[in-house]
Specification:
binds fe (ii) ion, four-stranded antiparallel β-sheet, 15 strands, 20% strand, Purple Acid Phosphatase, chain A, domain 2, disordered N terminus, 360 residues
């Protein structure tokens, strides 16, 4: 995979450490299940939400490229497998890192900007770090951003708020969801698949709510990769501060030449897959305070004889519930759902893996 770790030579992350005591957070009482039972609360549907989600257009200022030359854009933070390490990702220029290629006449190929993933190590828990990314020799440095590391892993320390979101897309409804996330100040974001929905577009930028309904005659399922850049720009105000952990959904499939799939997903995000002993960007694990998260891949083999199942077994066996009393496994297609459109879609995965998860 043409990940740009080689770009480390020109890609520099400058770190400023600011150790803050977190006494204000320690004062917050977070209810536990022992404080329950709680009265169920249903929030009325926001009437401004649209049944037919409408994508942000390329003319929206929030998705347009505003940086100059090789200045960083689409900046995001992701966690490594433990609190002492995070990934900073950003994109510069227009040179090649990954391509989305179609061997068919009339289809437009796409080449991404240089995608940088830099891993910071030796960080302290629950500490605010200021950083800049970019190349100081040009100079082309970003503004100063900050993130907070996760608390140390033990039975008393947890992130205060975790936002879990899926099927996010880049519609006007997305803007409400992201505003809600920002105003709730999460410490961590899990995005459980279906990210940019670039695969609802032809390579010429024509989109539709239902690809197969509108574009049934295309020789391959096309995508419009600039939608990924729009998504990265739109999300930067949130993701440059709050770590995001992503696992693939069906919309990241994005078939291209030579039967390659999931290339944008695997290239654009940083995943602690190597740090967590996984051979694949499709599944990995990490700790966030006293929680061990396992991100499972629903679009790669999950059979008992496959790599993922063996990795899951090894990962689960390593979990120390004294250190991480909470064990949370997540993946894209729900195993338990009555929703007719995706009814029992992930039944094979459930049958293969459910028993192993229950053992822990
Ligand atoms: Fe999906």
């Amino acid at each position: 995979m043409a990940k740009s770790v080689s770009m480390l030579v020109v890609a520099l992350v400058v770190l400023f450490v600011l150790k803050l005591t977190c006494s204000s957070r320690d004062d917050i009482h977070i209810p536990t299940t022992l404080d329950g039972p709680f009265k169920p609360f249903t929030k009325p549907l926001d009437k401004s939400f649209r049944g037919n989600a409408i994508d942000l257009p390329p003319t929206d200022p929030r998705v347009q490229r505003t940086v100059q030359g090789f200045e960083p854009e689409q900046i995001s933070v992701s966690l490594s497998s433990t609190y002492d390490s995070v990934w900073i990702s950003w994109i510069t220029g227009y040179s090649q890192v990954y391509s989305q290629l179609y061997p068919f006449e009339g289809l437009k190929n796409y080449t991404s900007g240089i995608i940088h993933h830099v891993r910071l190590r030796g960080l302290k828990p629950n500490t605010l770090y200021y950083y800049q990314c970019g190349d100081p020799s040009i100079p082309a440095m970003s503004d100063i951003y900050y993130f907070r590391t996760m608390p140390d892993s033990n039975h008393r320390s947890y992130p205060s708020r975790i936002a879990i979101v899926g099927d996010l897309g880049l519609t006007y409804n997305t803007t409400s969801t992201v505003s809600h996330m920002i105003s709730n100040h999460p410490d961590l974001i899990l995005l459980v698949g279906d990210v940019s929905y670039a695969n609802l577009y032809l390579t010429n930028g024509t989109g539709a709510d239902c690809y197969s309904c509108s574009f049934s005659q295309t020789p391959i399922h096309e995508t419009y990769q600039p939608r990924w850049d729009y998504w990265g720009r739109f999300m930067q105000p949130l993701l440059s501060k709050v770590p995001i952990m992503v696992v693939e959904g069906n919309h990241e499939y994005e078939e291209q030449a030579e039967n390659k799939t999931f290339v944008a997903y695997s290239s654009r995000f940083a995943f602690p897959y190597k740090e967590s002993g996984s051979p694949s960007t499709f599944y990995y694990s990490f700790n966030a305070g006293g929680i061990h998260f396992i991100m499972l891949g629903a679009y790669i083999s999950y059979d008992k004889s496959g790599e993922q199942y063996k990795w899951l077994k090894r990962d689960l066996a390593k979990v120390d519930r004294e250190v991480t009393p909470w064990l949370v496994a997540t993946w894209h297609p729900p195993w338990y759902s009555t929703y007719t459109a995706h009814y029992r879609e992930a039944e094979c995965m459930r049958v293969a893996m459910e028993e192993l998860l229950y053992q822990y």
